Amino acid sequence: MPMKKLLVLVPMAAVFLSGCSLPTAQKPKDAPAGPEVPGGFSAKIEKGSLWKTSDSGQTFEVKSQVNETTRIEQADILSIAYHPKKPATIYVSTVDHGILKTEDGGERWEQIPFPPKRIYSFILDRNDPDNRMFASGVLGEWSKIFRTEDGGKNWSEVYTEPGQKTVITALSQHFRDMNIIFAGTSAGTIIKSVDGGETWKNIGNKVDGAATDIVFDSTRPLVTYLLMTGRKLYYSPDGGKSWLDWEEEKKKEVQVLQDRASQLTKDGNKDRSDAVRKQAQDLSKRNQENRVPSGIISIAADPTRSGTIYAGTSRGLYRSPDYGKYWYELNIIESAKKFPIRSIAIDPKNSQEIVFVAGKAFYRSVNGGDTWAVTGLNVDRDASFVSYDPFDSKYLFLGLRNFK
User: Fold this and answer.
1) Is the pTM of this model over 0.85?
2) Run of H or E including 264
3) What is the per-residue DSSP string for 3-40?
4) What gap in Å lies between CA 239 and CA 205, rounded to an integer?
5) Reduced to 3 states, what is the DSSP secondary structure of residue 280?
6) How far is 355 from 95, CA to CA, in rounded Å?
7) CB distance 1 to 61 below 8 Å
8) For the ranges 12-26, 101-115, 349-363, 369-383, which has the lowest average pLDDT?
9) pLDDT (tens digit per residue) in 6-32
10) β-sheet with 155-160: strand ranges across
11) Which of 50, 87, 186, 338 lies in disulfide reach of 210, CB 3.0 to 4.6 Å?
């Protein structure tokens, strides 16, 4: 049931369609009769939780088949993980349908049971991807991190939150040192394991909000980004020992210049004082114009360019070239700004290619965000994530989720 690409839009020009209907999901031969529009397209809403493209996003096909008679149509998809050595073996985590695994690139999926009813975060352990996984959930009234050593047949607890009503909302394994695992909670606690989940310790200063994503820089192994969804993005230069709020750090830089100007005035060096005061004013203006965007929902680090990070918000897409200190808005399609940007991905081999999902649409740029191709999705829920297949970037997976 492929979904066809709508059109290519350039952000500097308005495009109007008259006398024609927007193309939607292509009607499969065995699909129930539904309203049709010219061109052989169907206007019916397509069912399915997971979609795949093999042509870089021009069309998407549903990949929710579990067996010959069953499909996971209503599963809410959280995340995806790829086996590092087997290109066709992929895992996805769902909110309340356990973990799904495919060994044929998405044609058939098997369910892996998970002890709690609901999954909050999931990672495939790249040290032993055939057997080890980590997932967080709530058992009884306690939030825990679970680990399996046998591919999901049996699970054991490796961490438990001491307080009730706190959820472990983020798990992330470092892509260079795979014994390092970070976890974050809905109460703003950040913990770290350096021995593959055997032991944990609290790290960093107090942070504000619920942790929802932990991302690592492409080349500097200690640089870590921490997203508290809708509130703040923190930067760590030292592997989580400290979490910096760039807006606070930039205020300190301005204050240093202002203090220096005051001291020069006291020393009778008015010309030098005026010059430094102007520097402080210019820096304060830049800080305001290129501040960290508010309402960040998703982040993605460029896989080849150190320090470059993207942020999807409730009103646009932003890029920072300097570890999140200063930000610049990308000129995306204006209508996309009306929907939260839930997920961003950058081609692992080409930083000029950027994709994101907002609402029920997929956006792709091959020129660093100057122009965008758009594929509409005739689906029943919003897109929750988009991800490149690391073995071949013409393949992307897209998951759906009910956010109500």
Assistant:
1) yes
2) helix 246-266
3) EEEEEEE-TTS-----S-----BBPPTTSPP--EETTT
4) 12
5) helix
6) 24
7) yes
8) 12-26
9) 433 333 333 323 333 323 344 444 444
10) 119-124, 133-139, 142-148, 155-160
11) 186
